[in-house]
Amino acid sequence: MSVELIIVSHSSKLAEGVVELAQQMAEDVRLHAVGGTDEGGIGTSFDRVQQAVEASGDAVVLCDLGSAVMTAESVIDFLDDDARARIRLADAPLVEGAVAAAVAAQSGGSLDEVLAAAESAAGSA
Amino acid sequence: MSVELIIVSHSSKLAEGVVELAQQMAEDVRLHAVGGTDEGGIGTSFDRVQQAVEASGDAVVLCDLGSAVMTAESVIDFLDDDARARIRLADAPLVEGAVAAAVAAQSGGSLDEVLAAAESAAGSA
Amino acid sequence: MAGVLDTAATVSWIRAIGAVIAEQEQHLTTLDRTIGDGDHGANMRRGFAAVTEKLDGEFADPEEVLKTVATTLISTVGGASGPLYGTAFLKGSMAVKGRAELDGAGVAAFIRGAADGVKARGKAEAGDKTMVDAWLPAAEAAEAAAADGADAQAVLSAAAAAARKGAEETEPIVARKGRASYLGERAIGHRDPGAESTAFILGAAE
Amino acid sequence: MAGVLDTAATVSWIRAIGAVIAEQEQHLTTLDRTIGDGDHGANMRRGFAAVTEKLDGEFADPEEVLKTVATTLISTVGGASGPLYGTAFLKGSMAVKGRAELDGAGVAAFIRGAADGVKARGKAEAGDKTMVDAWLPAAEAAEAAAADGADAQAVLSAAAAAARKGAEETEPIVARKGRASYLGERAIGHRDPGAESTAFILGAAE
Ligand SMILES: Nc1ncnc2c1ncn2[C@@H]1O[C@H](COP(=O)(O)OP(=O)(O)O)[C@@H](O)[C@H]1O
Ligand SMILES: Nc1ncnc2c1ncn2[C@@H]1O[C@H](COP(=O)(O)OP(=O)(O)O)[C@@H](O)[C@H]1O
Ligand SMILES: [Mg+2]
Ligand SMILES: [Mg+2]
Ligand SMILES: [Mg+2]
Ligand SMILES: [Mg+2]
Fold this sequence. Notes:
The complex is a heterotetramer, with 2 copies of chain A and 2 copies of chain C. Chain A has 6 helices and 4 strands, in the order βαβαβααβαα. By secondary structure, chain A is α/β, with parallel strands linked by helices. In chain A, strands 2-1-3-4 form a 4-stranded parallel beta sheet, with helices on both faces. In chain A, helix 1 links the parallel strand 1 and strand 2. Chain C starts with 6 loop residues before the first helix and ends with a helix. The site of one adenosine-5'-diphosphate (ADP) has 23 residues of chain C, from helix 2, helix 4 and helix 8. Chains C, D: This is Phosphoenolpyruvate-dihydroxyacetone phosphotransferase, ADP-binding subunit DhaL.
């Protein structure tokens, strides 16, 4: 099973668009779009990030803004040690990091390799 | 009139999501979402980028991937000198650059100030 | 409020916060519109409305009340203040675990736990123009008052006064964390919305 | 193809490209699925189908034909190859401006213009595993053949052979531009789809 990606954004369209873009270059990778608040507004949803994390295997989380990062970190804090060991939070630009990470996951990269791919992504190729 | 942003993406959802996110912090800035091919598929549309550029005043263009950058550069090449003088192509991460640029435009930044805001955006704050 | 905060008094305090936040929604939104995205009032109102609905339940002790506030805020606020206040109430509740009621020292322990939680969650320091600038002086004032033997009510008052001053002192500085950090020098002269809501939370029992 | 490329022969060459691309769609897509996003065949088929529809019109000279190819590709391809081939045909057409027909030197001038255009548009160098690796040797071979007095047909053949060899030589290397650059070492052993389509374009008149 390849490493999965969880895309956390304030906008559901933005999260879905990132998944759409990254999926193109990584057909077999599971990509989770988690965007918007529970009411469909602009913001982040702790509960849906938590559901995505619980529904995933090894996964790298990418976020759009600082408040999304804090939401993701809170979710990770609530995980038990086993679950926490399979989740990494990337410090990466959202779109560029997601594409690079998706390609790394598609080629069978390990959790830390996929994380490194996200974090070394800079501009567009 | 504040500087405008043109968001060029392979995905229409992604472009619209970036606009949605950036608009939140920049109510009065004109943000143009140009995503997907003319048929609504994944890819970029030279014609719609050109229309956005022609419909805008001073504007900074942000792109998701290298092929979007090449599309935008082609559009810029076809502009006359007057039009070209009011367009800047940012070398910046799409989401992070767009948010930073939108805030700079909202506070009345000049074309080059908005460009610099986009290009100095790194991770999420 | 009494000299100690038992379970019922803790519930009353949280209800009072809900009322103050509802009253101040527009004010918080206005502050956030100036140096953020204009949703802090709505975020806080939504969060504390959900919290208030939960307060009719049964609670074993203050910790359980405060933990319910934490998990409810974290799930309903939808902005940076969700994980921040969620962490504040969670770490604060953990600091008073096992106490049937909070005396002055208990209240100070809660506020210190909350302040350290916010600081860790936000990776922010004093002077970054965030709610940390209200929480940190509040924790210091609370500890000083408790050390002087002040009761729960007096410790909370001391914390609230320090938080209010801390919120005011966010005005002349630039932001290094949160959305206002995008503004650079242009954030100068404007109060941080989260520091302001922290002052209201700690001052709600007055 | 004749010894010179007049307007009608230029149109015939472009028609032949459309036919070859349609035939090779699946092959190009397979290459792009391996080291890209799997749309190069569809992109090129869509682009040249639109081009072919335009070929029934009236054209004053080869430049006008080639410029029509350029603007049509740029508007219809939808991937990196759109601006790249669009720029190739545009800069190539500008290099033969004013000529009623292209002799060997004219064809070489077109290919050199196209190659330099692709290189500038993509900011790619030889060895970056892109279509530049087909265009640059093609331009060199075309110029050498033209200097030896070869006619249009022979110059195009020399360019096609060089492009084909260039495309094959993209296999053992890593990509430094385009989507394949995300793959690092894992791109080794796979041919670049754009270099392959360039070889088909230049070889279509055979
Ligand atoms: N990294 C951080 N550390 C501490 N506090 C922060 C941080 N980021 C934001 N804040 C606080 O959150 C407040 C904004 O909350 P809110 O408007 O609800 O969230 P958002 O910024 O996601 O819209 C800010 O005024 C600030 O006090
Ligand atoms: N920067 C570049 N410079 C030169 N050629 C490039 C560049 N980027 C991509 N290409 C070429 O474009 C081809 C891919 O075209 P295509 O699949 O149609 O576009 P996309 O990559 O947008 O899906 C690559 O095989 C390569 O030859
Ligand atoms: Mg806000
Ligand atoms: Mg918000
Ligand atoms: Mg492709
Ligand atoms: Mg493509």
